[in-house]
From TrEMBL:
This is histidine kinase. Residues 545-556 have a biased composition (Basic and acidic residues). The keyword Nucleotide-binding applies. PROSITE patterns: HIS_KIN. Keywords: ATP-binding, Kinase, Membrane, Nucleotide-binding, Phosphoprotein, Transferase, Transmembrane, Transmembrane helix, Two-component regulatory system. The chain crosses the membrane at residues 20-39, 276-298. It comes from Cystobacter ferrugineus. The lineage of its organism: Bacteria, Pseudomonadati, Myxococcota, Myxococcia, Myxococcales.
Length: 556
């Protein structure tokens, strides 16, 4: 009977499995680490490129806006030179009207000529802003203190900005020329920028100059303080209500305006993230496929390894059992020979006939068992010769009719006229003898247990394609459930008094001739099928010299 693997083998199996799984996990980690490190490097590089691009585009916008404002200052300064000493329009009136022209003017919002008290001397369109209101503006006081052009919000919180230049005569400030502009006049940055980029231009107080519709993050009250930090650091991440943005700020050349350019970095790395996910999905698919293939291959190799171990252990066991069985059988045969000689000297009368016949039958059975044990450890070689299979089956059945069970079993045979094969007749007879003997004994045992009334055994010989097939059926109910997988193992039997060598030796005898034996559970019983190769089939590799003695037919 097959025994479970020893503890050392089970420990080795577990260690091997853990090692294989650890190796696969390590390979998986190494395979995943590559894309992750590549993704991290790509993200860092993309962020660096993104921030460099943000800084570069911010400087371009700032330079463009600075040049435009410088143009506005230059035009106002040129017109201011034509204003009369008493702030009379004089020859500057036409130039001022050109600056406010609806289609081509630079100051379409309007143009003001103010004196030092804030009184409007000339305006286009007509303006009625009180002088005390203008006089209170910061930009107005700044020009009076430092006669230099100024760009600032018209009033706190206003989106209308002013470009003001002083009117100076003989180093004395007489007034100022003020142009009104807003984001709707086509200034650089007043229109939407590149995708994902948002721009804002503001003064020191946080009044938005550009664009006309500022982004949400540019309307926060603390934006001016954040811009001061951005100017000090060049650029940094800024938390907004819409999320985290990377912002970069610079001063517009020639002004005190600040330009802020911001964008969401996550949109720039979305493509990289999608590519990484695609790589990880492909990698995961490859890993799963590799694991499945490896598992299937490892399972097959592991089963082969277990089968080889089982066969090696079986050979060792058979060798040990063969040696022990040979010693035991030799001693038993010596005693049986003496008993056989003694019974042969008896002259049975009518009263002793049954006892003598039973005694001789048991001596023959024990001799048969001893001879089988002797041949178990040293199986004979195969000799392939022409064999008439139906004739061989008839001889086997005739030999079994002398058994005590033959009187109770209804034995039927379905044999063709002729069916020639190539094989060893002695090994074939042994195999068929064991199968039919097993069927007869099982049927009689089932009758004794009350499971059936008429034991029946059927033997059928037929040809299936090029193969010869022998079916042996009985109505004994079959072996116990779950026992089929161990039917052909040596020394494994379901019979209380069986030895467990009959089916094992049957399978060995058939396989030595290139055939195979199978078991099928049928309604009410069992069917053993022997399939033999065609006559022209190549002999098995282990077929060598002829056997020296017929192997005995041992019932299971």
């Amino acid at each position: 009977m097959a025994s479970p693997p020893p503890p050392d083998l089970r420990t080795s199996e577990r260690q091997f499995t853990r090692s294989v799984l650890a190796g696969l996990c390590l390979l998986g980690l190494v395979a995943v680490a590559g894309p992750l490190l590549s993704y991290r490097g790509d993200v860092l590089e993309m962020r660096e490129q993104f921030r460099s691009r943000l800084e570069r585009e911010g400087r371009v916008y700032a330079e463009a806006l600075g040049l435009h404002i410088q143009l506005l200052k230059s035009e106002l300064s040129r017109v201011a030179m034509g204003v009369g000493p008493e702030l009379q329009e004089g020859r500057a009136i036409e130039d001022m009207q050109d600056l406010t022209a609806p289609d081509i003017g630079l100051f379409r919002q309007g143009l003001l000529l103010l004196d030092v008290s804030g009184t409007v001397r000339w305006s286009e369109p007509l303006s009625r802003i009180p002088s005390d209101v203008l006089r209170g503006r910061e930009w107005f006081q700044r020009i009076l203190q430092h006669p230099a052009p100024v760009v600032d919000a018209l009033e706190p919180g206003s989106s209308t900005f002013v470009v003001a230049v002083p009117v100076v005569r003989e180093r004395r400030t007489l007034g100022m020329l003020v142009g009104l502009i807003d984001a709707s006049t086509g200034l650089p940055g007043s229109r939407s920028l590149s995708r994902h980029l948002e721009l804002a231009v503001l003064n020191r107080e946080g009044d938005i100059f550009l664009p006309s519709r500022p982004p949400p993050w540019a309307t926060t009250p603390s934006l001016a303080r954040k811009v001061d930090a951005l100017l000090a650091r060049g650029g940094q991440e800024v938390e907004t209500a819409q999320g985290t943005l990377f912002a970069w700020a610079t001063v517009v050349p020639g002004t005190e305006l600040r330009l802020v350019l911001a964008a969401d970095e996550t949109t720039t790395v979305a493509a990289i993230r999608e590519r990484l996910l695609a790589q990880l999905l492909v990698l995961a698919g490859l890993q799963v496929g590799t694991l499945l293939l490896f598992s299937l291959h490892w399972r097959r190799v592991y089963r082969l390894f277990l089968e080889m171990e089982r066969r090696a252990a079986e050979k060792e066991t058979m060798a040990a059992l063969g040696s022990a069985a040979g010693l035991i059988a030799h001693e038993v045969k010596n005693s049986l020979n003496g008993l056989k000689v003694a019974t042969g000297m008896l002259t049975p009368g009518e009263e002793q006939a049954f006892a003598v016949r039973a005694l001789r039958g048991q001596i023959d059975r024990l001799a048969h068992l001893a001879t089988s044990l002797l041949h178990f450890g040293n199986p004979p070689r195969v000799q392939r010769i022409p064999v008439d299979l139906p004739h061989l089956v008839r001889e086997v059945l005739e030999g079994l009719r002398v058994l005590p069970e033959a009187e109770e079993v209804h034995l039927t045979a379905h044999l063709p006229e002729a069916l020639d094969i190539q094989g060893d007749p002695l090994l074939l007879a042994t195999a068929l003898d064991n199968l039919v003997r097993n069927a007869m004994e099982a049927a009689v045992a089932a009758k004794d247990l009350g499971r059936l009334t008429t034991p029946e055994v059927s033997v059928r010989v037929r040809q299936e394609e090029d193969h010869a097939v022998v079916d042996v059926e009985d109505n004994a109910g079959g072996p116990p459930e779950g026992f089929e997988a161990r039917l052909f193992e040596p020394f494994v039997t379901s019979k209380p008094k069986g030895v467990g060598l009959g089916l094992s030796m049957t399978r060995r005898a058939v396989e030595q001739q290139g055939g195979r034996v199978s078991f099928t559970r049928i309604p009410g019983g069992s069917r053993f099928t022997v399939i033999l190769p065609p006559p022209d089939a190549a002999p098995p590799a282990d077929s060598q010299e002829p056997p020296h003695e017929r192997p005995p037919a041992l019932h299971r």
